[in-house]
Amino acid sequence: MNVLRFVGEDIGKMKYRYTVITLQLIVGLLLFCYIYQVNDAFTQTRGMIQSRLKNQEIYMFRDNTSDKKIDKLLNSDDKLQDMKKWYAKVQKVLAENADIQSYVADTTSDINTKKDEYIRNVIVSEKFMDIYNMKGNFSKTELKKEFFGASANADQIPVIVGYNLGKKYKKGDVFTDVSRQKYKVIGSLKKGSVFVEPSHSKKYSSLDDCILSPYQLSENDSMGYWSYVQSVYFLTNNAGEIQKLIADSKKMGLYDLYLVDFSYQLQCITRDAQDTFAVYGMFLAVTVVFCVVGIIGNMIQFINNNKKEFAIHLLVGASAKEIIGRIILLAAFQILISLVVVAAVFGVNKYFCVTVMFASIFMIATMVYPILFLKRQSIRTILRRSYE
Question: 252: which residues sit within 8 A by CB, 6+ positions away?
């Protein structure tokens, strides 16, 4: 108890310096936990996506059709029939070629839930959920029957909300947008769910703040076929069959398409993440250096200011271990305060546990000097130096 009383008095004497160093330590541990969490999530995501993509290229149609021709296509009943035939050819090619995977991810719409409040709506096909291994608090049966199996004419559009939105919209809830369209929540996604959107972003696109709604093609709507062309992705290493579909589209007087792949964009995703981690790592290194220098400097000043007191304590029977314990407790309280803040921000999970290990190593490193100093100094030496 005496040691704790002395520690309390010590903190009171140097409260300004102690507070500044504690704040530095809080920032350092928060940054460490964040970097580790982001890096771990990126590594897992990259591994998952690479395993799901099976080292295949991602291709997408690019539409070079003139506005005048598009207007004609969208307003012609004859062309609508041609669109149906061409779409049927696309589906036949996909069914007959196991080495070609395809999914729809339309990110061009939002759901306006309140005035000036928009939620990104990603319209997806069933294959999208499989390729990106989307998981959440919904079963495969619910996904098949209630999400993708819902009628296009139903009053309520089934949706799956991102992890962050799941805190507001619970499974089974029904909400309405400003146009009074109703949406029924089938479930929420697992935290950190992402997908590749190389035509729009050089990063993995997070779904934590998005809503997923099912892709359903309206067979008698020309706009639906055009939307399909804009939002369909192909995964394959054999683009020959897709090139034939492009040629068929031109022969039928439909869209003027060409094929683009996203190998470069996928490489950019990895490079961009590595650059981000490098910047974060630099900030972390600088913060840690300041923390180490600050804590060691604080301990040195504390020891220098209290040499006489330490010597007297040793003369009246106190042990060096008690004084060392007093110094260790000063640093331990800083670590504990910082870890409480980290736990409050990130929760108690594996990232927090790794941060605790990092903080423990950090504390041991900063305690080497004061412990060695007190162990090597005799009472006479400490007394003599207290008068220097």
Answer: 82, 85, 86
Identity at 313, one-letter amino acid code:
H
Q: How many CA atoms lie within 13 A of 1 on its CB side?
A: 0
The total number of structural domains in the chain stands at: 3
pLDDT at 379: 45
| Whether residue 250 sits in one domain with residue 219 | no
Range of the domain at 217: 101-237
Q: What's the pLDDT at 220?
A: 85
Asked whether residue 264 is assigned to any structural domain, the reply reads no
Q: Retrieve residue 202's tokens.
A: 């050089």
Considering the domain boundaries, does residue 52 fall inside one?
A: no
Residues 310 and 328: their CA atoms lie apart, in Å, by 15
Q: Are residues 155 and 210 in the same domain?
A: yes
**Does 262 map to a domain?**
no
CA atoms of 34 and 256, how far apart (whole Å): 46
Same domain, 221 and 138: yes
Report DSSP letters for 145-210, one per residue: IIITTS-TT-SEEEEEE-TTGGGTS-TT-EEE-TT--EEEEEEEBPTT-EEE-TTT-SSEEE-TTE
pTM above 0.70, yes or no: no
The Cα diameter of the chain in Å comes to 105
Q: Which residues of the chain have pLDDT under 50?
A: 379-380, 383, 386-387
